[in-house]
Design brief:
By secondary structure, chain A is α/β, with parallel strands linked by helices. Helix content of chain A is about 20%, strand content about 25%. In chain B, α2 packs antiparallel against α6, α5 (about 90-110) packs across α7 and α5 crosses α9 (about 190-205). The longest helix of chain B has 28 residues, at about 120-145. Classes of the chains: A alpha/beta, B mainly alpha.
Chain lengths: ~160, ~250
């Protein structure tokens, strides 16, 4: 049997989406940190966005199901913090998908020095910065809540970390 | 690696996070405004999740499963400091405790990034980043309400005076203090306290609040060795109520 290439596996993993943002693949989210494959055994190493992310087990199971559907007989998913996730690991394609979904993509994490940085996040609808931070915590661990004074609508941001 | 020393360190941090996370979750549905309801609920989820990750490391070191450890121990087997088990009280007390506790926690995990025990060092790097949101939240509200009205200032001051002896109990020395320091696992409670005090002073200096004199505060110790207040056992009973109906249930 041919050893699967990393590229092939990555293409297959494109089908597995973030359960809370179904337009964003786990690959674009940046949580897949390593892929090892021998003839019929694939080991995926992943890392959670937030340590307390309740969707982690669901994501692990979906990775296993998806690869098995492509004929991989044995799939192991290991969780590790050796290459920790940061919002900077989200790909450009991923950031565009987040914005299209209606969330503001995260600002680069090195700019996040104080809560003030989150005060005028660009609105994902009108791109304007006449916005204000309503809450650094949101409906999921990875989102904050903002309000656009021009659109007169609330929006959420994928938090920089 | 000195395993008993390492386990003692992991247990106290994990237990602090679990118990404090549970207290935070008690604000769900009761916050003084919706944003704070969401903030305390979110921080609860972070903290309980972080305790789970620490219990998983303990599990790899031969301790029981995280759920068993979290739900099946009695109060005298918990190593959390007394500060975190105190009831939420009113919002002013919860806010003061949040500020004092999370300021220390953020420094503790910053120190642990350099731990000689690799799994803890890696996890600490991750948790440290998440805690920035918690400390920024605490500092923002302490500054806001600590300079607002006579009532808000008086309430925070009373809670600060009441919480401080318990806050100093966070730094109760471990019986393995020397081993932890010598082996580079953790730089020690005393060093943590000495970094915590100026951070607390700095934020309080931006408010109308007064810090009590450090020298005359008598720390409330004992939590690290299982001597708790009457408030811990009822919390554990409530937290484990559903789990204990059927410990073998699959969730």
């Amino acid at each position: 049997m041919v050893v699967l290439s990393k590229e092939t596996i990555l293409t297959w993993l494109e089908e597995v989406k973030d359960p809370e943002i179904p337009v964003l693949s786990l690959v674009d989210l940046g949580v897949i940190t390593d892929i090892q494959s021998t003839d019929d055994h694939v080991t995926i190493e992943m890392t959670p966005t937030f340590v307390g992310c309740p969707a982690l087990d669901l994501m692990k199971n979906e990775i296993i199901e998806s690869l098995q559907k492509h004929g991989v007989r044995k799939v192991d998913v290991k969780v590790s913090f050796s290459k920790p996730w940061s919002s900077d690991k989200i790909s450009e394609k991923g950031k565009a998908a987040i914005k299209k979904f209606g969330l503001a993509p995260p600002v680069p994490s090195n700019l996040f020095t104080d809560i003030e940085v989150l005060e005028h996040v660009a609105c994902p609808r009108c791109n304007g910065t006449n916005t204000e931070l309503k809450n650094p915590f949101g409906p999921t661990l990875c989102r904050s809540i903002h309000y656009c004074n021009d659109c007169k609508e609330a929006f959420e941001q994928f938090k920089p970390l | 690696m000195n395993t008993p020393a390492l386990k003692e360190l992991l247990y106290k941090i994990a237990d602090d996070q679990l118990i404090y996370g549970h207290r935070n979750s008690e604000w769900t549905g009761f916050g003084p405004l919706l944003e704070e309801d969401i903030a305390f609920s979110s921080m609860a989820q972070d903290k309980v999740g972080q305790s789970y990750a620490l219990y998983q490391i303990l599990n790899q070191l031969g301790e029981q499963e995280p759920d068993t450890v979290a739900f099946m121990r009695n109060a005298n087997q918990f190593h959390n400091c007394v500060l975190v088990e105190l009831p939420n009280g009113e919002y002013d007390f919860s806010l003061i405790r949040h500020f004092l506790y999370d300021t220390a926690l953020a420094i503790r995990f910053t120190m642990l990034v350099n731990s000689s025990y690799q799994p803890l060092a890696e996890l600490a790097g991750k948790i440290k980043g998440e805690l920035r949101y918690h400390t920024l939240h605490a500092n923002t509200w302490i500054k806001k309400l600590g300079t607002a009205t006579e009532e808000s200032i008086n309430r925070l001051q009373r809670s600060l005076d009441m919480a401080m002896p318990y806050a100093l109990g966070m730094f109760e020395p471990s019986p393995f203090e020397r081993e932890l320091i010598n082996e580079g696992i953790f730089e020690g409670e005393e060093k943590l306290k000495l970094q915590w005090m100026p951070k607390v002073e700095e934020v309080i200096a931006g408010t109308n609040l007064q810090l009590p004199d450090w020298k005359i505060i008598k720390p409330v110790m004992g939590g690290r060795s299982g001597q708790h207040s009457e408030h811990l056992q009822p919390l554990l009973d409530e937290m484990s109520e559903v789990f204990k109906i059927d410990p073998s249930a699959e969730w």
